[in-house]
Amino acid sequence: MRENLDNQHSFIFLKWFNFFVYGSVVLFTSFFPLYLQDVGMNKLEIGSVMSAGALVSLIANPFWGIWTDRYQNIRRIVLLMLTGTLVLSQLIFQAHTYESVYIFILFFYFFQGPLFAESNTMILSYVDSSPKRFGSFRLWGSLGWAFTAILAGPVIEWAGVSVLSYLFALLLCLAMVMLISLPRPKNIIGSAPLPFRGLGKTISNPFFLCFIFFGILVSIPNTMNGIFVPLYITELGGSKTMVGLAVFLSSILEFGVLLLFDKLLRKRIPVMLACLTLVSLLFVLRWWLMADATTPLQVAFIQVLHCITFGGFFYVGTQLTMLLVARPLRSSGQALYALAWSGVAGILGGVLGGWLYKNLGVQTMYQSAVFLTLIGTLGFGGMWLFAGSGGYRPPAAQEEELEDISAARQ
After folding, report:
1. How far is CA 387 from the centre of its chain?
2. Theoretical Cys-Cys bridge with 366: which of 147, 235, 291, 349, CB 3.0 to 4.6 Å?
3. CA distances (Å), 269 to each of 265, 299, 385, 395, in order?
4. Is residue 289 a contact partner of residue 302, using CB atoms and an 8 Å limit?
5. Exposure string for 42-53, b = 16+ CB within 10 A, e = fewer
6. d(C-alpha 69, C-alpha 64), whole Å
């Protein structure tokens, strides 16, 4: 009886931990560009600073994964990451030059960048062998993201963007309190920090490489929008409250969209490619509407499409990767997909978007987004027709061959 009560308390602490962690991240991603603009940085400098996380993640993710597996105490690892994130964030807010901000942001992303992945692994360790589902905890993260954005907007509008450092520190401290209140998890789920052992076999699949390439083209504009939409809203005369509303609208329906995909989507390659083509086409519509927006309220309501476009692209892309890559190589495939989505596209989106915004204007940036996404959409459409006509055979033979080799070695 006492053990069940302790478990219930642990689950409550986990839910609030997810709420505060996601809330702290949305503060940084959505309002920090406004802070950088307020201290005098131009659009290219803002883009390069915000895209630094994608570069650092190439090192940070495997580093923390290795130490998690070696130390076997993921709660303390996550606590160390939160502490480093808190300390580095305050150093960033005290920095006054582009060079010093950029140096501190690199160390900041080393701690903060892999936080979602390690937190998810920790939650899975707690819910393992229990009737609880991971999705219920992910829902609290979505709620933290949405409601922090909508509530922080008026506070920042009233107190000024400099209050961002205090709000960020407050949410991180609350997350740390929830984390300290948790017992050590009984089950440790490995985080697979070295997923590239099968990389050579994975990149020898030309169909999968086409999928990765077209995915990068669709992902670059999404990074541009994520970084620069707060600046776009304020340039159109919108307030910090309007920025918070835009973020709220972009995320409040995302969980429902993921559940809908999970229930209705058939896990067949042609079906998923058709769905990915449709989602990418909605991306095209979204960027076209953004290029023609004339009021901050229009921009805010266009962000509702984020729930379908980002949620659909992330979900379908992850599931499709599982089908396009042989089973023994799926870890490498997922790592390559994540690297393309958040790494390559993150770096290119921040730098390219910043250059376009600074030199040619925001409308040109979104028109370029339409062009890039349209090429990706046509590419996915071609892959869909090719797979639907029977021109592509899933790597079943390769999978069986690798399984036979593995069995023979054992």
Report:
1. 28
2. 291
3. 11, 34, 11, 12
4. yes
5. ebbbbbbbbbbb
6. 9
pLDDT digits (tens, 9 = 90+) for 22-50: 999 999 888 999 999 988 899 999 999 98
Taking the model in full, what pTM does it have?
0.81
Arithmetic mean of pLDDT, 314-321:
78
Residue with tokens 């590239």: 196
- Per-residue pLDDT at 194 exceeds 60: no
SS3 67: helix
Q: How far apart are the first and last CA of the chain?
A: 44
- Helices in 128-253 by DSSP H: which ranges? 134-159, 164-180, 199-203, 206-235, 240-251
Query: Which tokens go with 117?
Result: 């992945």
Average pLDDT for residues 137-165, to the nearest whole number? 87
Q: Tens of pLDDT along 281-297?
A: 999 999 999 999 999 99
Alpha carbon distance 187, 73 (integer Å): 10
Map residue 11 onto helix, strand or coil: helix
